[in-house]
Write a structure and sequence with these properties.
The complex is a heterodimer. Chain A is an alpha+beta fold. Chain A has helices spanning about 10-15, 30-35, 165-170, 175-180, 190-195, 195-200, 205, and strands at about 45, 50-55, 75-80, 80, 95-105, 105-115, 130-135, 155-160, 220-225, 235, 240-245, 250-260, 275-280, 295, 300. Chain A has one domain (about 5-175, about 215-300): Sandwich (Immunoglobulin-like), CATH 2.60.40. Chain A is built from 7 helices and 15 strands. By secondary structure, chain B is an alpha+beta fold. Chain B has a single domain, classed as Alpha-Beta Plaits (2-Layer Sandwich). Helices cover about 20% and strands about 20% of the residues of chain B. Chain B has 10 helices and 19 strands. Chain B has helices at about 40-50, 75-85, 160-165, 195, 220, 230-235, 255-260, 290-295, 300-310, 315-320; strands spanning about 1-5, 10-15, 25-30, 60-65, 90, 90-95, 150-155, 170-175, 180-185, 205, 210-215, 240-245, 265-270, 280, 330-335, 340-345, 350-355, 365-370, 375-380. In chain B, the strands form 8 sheets. In chain B, strands 12-3-14-13 form a 4-stranded mixed β-sheet. The longest helix of chain B has 10 residues, at about 40-50. Classes of the chains: A alpha+beta, B alpha+beta. Chains A and B meet through helix 7 of A and loops of B. The complex binds iron/sulfur cluster (SF4) (2 copies). One iron/sulfur cluster binds near residues 38, 41 and 235 of chain B. One iron/sulfur cluster (SF4) binds near residues 233 and 236 of chain B.
Chain lengths: ~300, ~375
């Protein structure tokens, strides 16, 4: 890889690395600022590096509509049905994800947008949610872990936003039976007649501490580590922030994480570049788990802090 | 894919994991002939385990009228239609299992019930099939042209569970100590792959906790040597909770081994699907053999004959009489002097029941009193 310039070719090779391609690392890439200077604000062709513009101050980590995002170039990332690991996604519902990135001294934020006519933000029987995820290696250095969520001894750091979690937050946890079936009539339920500690026993997932069963959440983004499909592990510290809104037939979702990545992986330091991959789920197309759309490895280049 | 032995198919088959039989296998025997569809079992289960908010659709135990009842709607006919022709050569299954028929990109040939399909737990209740003009509603032996029967359904705690095979998280596991299949409530991420894969549709999604749940075989009771809630609540006394050995280790003194392996009177539900389910059914005696064969595999004719002969077969009759006679799981039984006795592991007697209940005949008319006045009473058939 050229030490002086991030090229389209380099970026594509990150994708190729998943099938045994090029050595790519998180080492400082000289000249990123120069490479992106003339593309400020514009939309790039697919395969270009995603450059996280340095922003001095608070990032719009919970505001997909913020004007600050116009500082960042939108990169079009191709996504396709996951058909590497069972179970496959049969039908492709979306082919492109828009990605913008910003970085501050302490945080990296991504604005992701994709086309989806239907809002799927409740989980029910054969009702699945819309979601998006970002995947990063935990360690700098090459080659990147296998695209399929890492491998044993070669972990990835994943941040997933779910529409259901966004609704949990926006509605104060009104995302259960009463919302799935607004006309529902209940007999006496445990929480009507039992003290809370006893009633809780009837929500076993919650009682057992499954983070998926929680509805009182402070962030719509979950941080996990994985070493291959099916190995997602909820991280003890959940520091990622974010927010998603549905506008004009598109989801616009911010996922932001502290650049230090304490306890998870190496810091996303200014001036470094990283392989980054994405996944998108369309709830109404019955996407869930491995039935998703994925990108190949792309390049996230973090702009140097201006002197 | 591993090669595993499925004795119900009389052959080896493909399964995503190596075979690992538990130390002992939870099993339930159902005598379909005695069920009245009172749903006491369903309520016993529901009021014990699934009356929480978010579990509205969950019936870990349900009773459905065959051939027109299903929960969820069409669960069996849909997967059978997808699987295509299922043929047997004697006791060997020559068709494909749902593992062998899995399409590319899938571990299991599955069928996903729609949300609506979970909304009619008692659809088809008591609806008979057949031609009412040509026959009577009262079952005529050998076979009435008009028939229906009740099928008791819980999770089969399969030897080769499709729910386990399909879960990408490996969040479902089979307990090595008793073969009970459980969803790890801390690992499940709610992908609902098991809802598609389990052909019996016995994993269910909790709408409040967003993870799957399933019949737990009343394991806290099993651990105390007790039979399940649905078993002990059954007023038809048609259920037996017990442990089953693989056929090569069958012990004729053990109740489930005797019924399944020795007498072969209790048969698995849709064995052709390939899961080696561990709930066994004594088939109804009044239903056409073809229908029973597609549901319980080869061996239904012999099973029906043996059941009809049970009145002259004290060992079998005694064991059937012990169904529902005790809450405790019994290890062995015997019959002597017209009394069947069940014993625990130490050989201590748990319960004794007569093969024939004594009969008392009261006169039709008898003298009695109402408010101190003498009146004539009449016997009512109650
Ligand atoms: S019946 Fe279904 S849920 Fe139960 S063990 Fe078998 S495959 Fe799993
Ligand atoms: S309690 Fe017994 S008789 Fe009643 S429906 Fe259940 S299995 Fe049938």
């Amino acid at each position: 890889m050229s030490a002086s310039k991030v090229t389209r070719q380099d970026a594509l090779l990150y994708g190729g690395a998943a099938v045994g391609g090029l050595v790519v690392g998180g080492a400082a890439v000289v000249g990123i600022a120069a490479a992106v200077e003339n593309r400020k604000g514009a939309e790039t062709a697919e395969g270009e590096p995603i450059v996280a513009r340095y922003h001095d101050g608070e990032l719009p980590a919970e505001d997909p509509g913020s004007g600050t995002w116009s500082k960042a170039t939108r990169v079009r990332v191709p996504i396709a049905a996951q058909r590497i690991v069972q179970p496959y996604l049969e039908r492709e519902g979306v082919t492109e994800l828009g990605v913008r990135a910003l970085a501050s001294a302490t945080e990296v934020a991504l604005l992701l947008d994709w086309e989806d006519d239907a809002i799927d933000d409740l989980d029910g029987i054969r009702r699945y949610h819309d979601a998006v995820a970002v995947q990063l290696p935990t360690r700098a250095g090459a080659p990147p872990p296998p695209l399929t969520m890492g491998a044993p001894g070669n972990p990835v750091h994943i941040l997933q936003w779910r529409a259901t979690w966004q609704r949990d937050i926006d509605s104060g946890g009104k995302t259960g039976v009463d919302q799935i079936y607004p006309e529902v009539v209940h007999d006496v339920m445990p929480d009507d007649v039992l003290p809370p500690e006893a009633a809780q026993l009837y929500w076993v997932g919650r009682e057992a501490g499954n983070p998926l069963s929680k509805i009182d959440r402070s962030t719509p983004v979950e941080e996990v580590a994985a070493e291959g499909f099916g190995t997602v592990t909820h991280l003890p510290n959940q520091l990622a922030r974010g927010r998603g809104v549905h506008e004009d037939g598109r989801w616009k979702v911010v996922i932001a994480l502290p650049s230090a990545r304490a306890g998870v992986g190496e810091a996303l330091a200014p001036g470094t570049s990283w392989p980054i991959a994405f996944a998108v789920w369309l709830g109404s197309d019955e996407n869930r788990g491995g039935r998703k759309h994925i990108s190949t490895w792309q390049t996230l280049a973090l702009e140097e802090r201006p002197a | 894919m591993a090669r595993v032995r499925n004795w119900q198919l009389g052959r080896d088959m493909e399964y995503p994991y190596e075979a690992e039989r538990p130390k002992r296998q939870f099993t339930m025997i159902m005598d379909t002939n005695k069920c009245i569809a009172c749903q006491s079992c369903t309520i016993a289960c529901k009021s014990t385990w699934t009356w929480g908010k978010g579990q509205e659709f969950m019936l870990w135990n349900n009773i459905e009228t065959k051939p027109f009842g299903f929960y969820p709607t069409g669960w069996d006919v849909n997967i059978l239609a997808k699987l295509g022709e299922q043929s047997w050569d004697g006791d060997t299954y020559t068709g494909q299992t749902i593992f062998e028929a899995a399409p590319e990109g899938e571990r299991v040939l599955g069928w996903t019930a729609a949300e609506e399909d979970w909304s009619h737990p008692n659809i088809g209740e008591d609806e008979p099939t057949g031609n009412a003009i040509e026959t009577t509603y009262v079952p005529d032996r050998p076979h009435s042209l008009m028939w229906m029967y009740y099928l008791q359904r819980i999770c089969n705690h399969c030897t080769y569970p499709a729910c386990v095979a399909a879960c990408p998280r490996e969040a479902i596991y089979k307990r090595p100590e008793d073969g009970i299949v459980l969803v790890d409530q801390t690992r499940c991420r709610g992908y609902q792959e098991c809802l598609t894969a389990c052909p019996y549709k016995k994993t269910m999604f909790n709408l409040e906790t967003r993870v799957s749940e399933k019949c737990i075989g009343c394991y806290p009771k099993i651990e105390q040597g007790l039979q399940t809630q649905c078993t002990t609540a059954c007023i038809g006394r048609l259920r037996l909770t017990n442990f089953l050995s693989p056929p090569e280790e069958a012990d004729p003194r053990k109740p489930a081994d005797f019924l399944v392996h020795i007498r072969k009177i209790a048969l698995p539900l849709y064995p052709q699907l390939g899961l080696e389910p561990n709930v066994y059914y004594i088939p109804p005696t009044h239903v056409p053999t073809d229908f029973l064969t597609q549901m319980f595999g080869p061996g239904v004719e012999e099973a029906v004959k043996m059941y009809e002969n049970a009145k002259d077969d004290p060992e079998l009759l005694g064991l059937l009489m012990l169904f529902g006679a005790t809450e405790r799981i019994f290890e062995t039984w015997d019959v002597s002097g017209g009394v069947a006795r069940a014993y625990d592991e130490q050989g201590e007697e748990i319960v004794a029941v007569p093969l024939r209940e004594p009969t008392f005949v009261r006169p039709f008319e008898f003298a009695t009193e109402v408010a101190g006045e003498p009146v004539t009473g009449y016997r009512h058939n109650t």
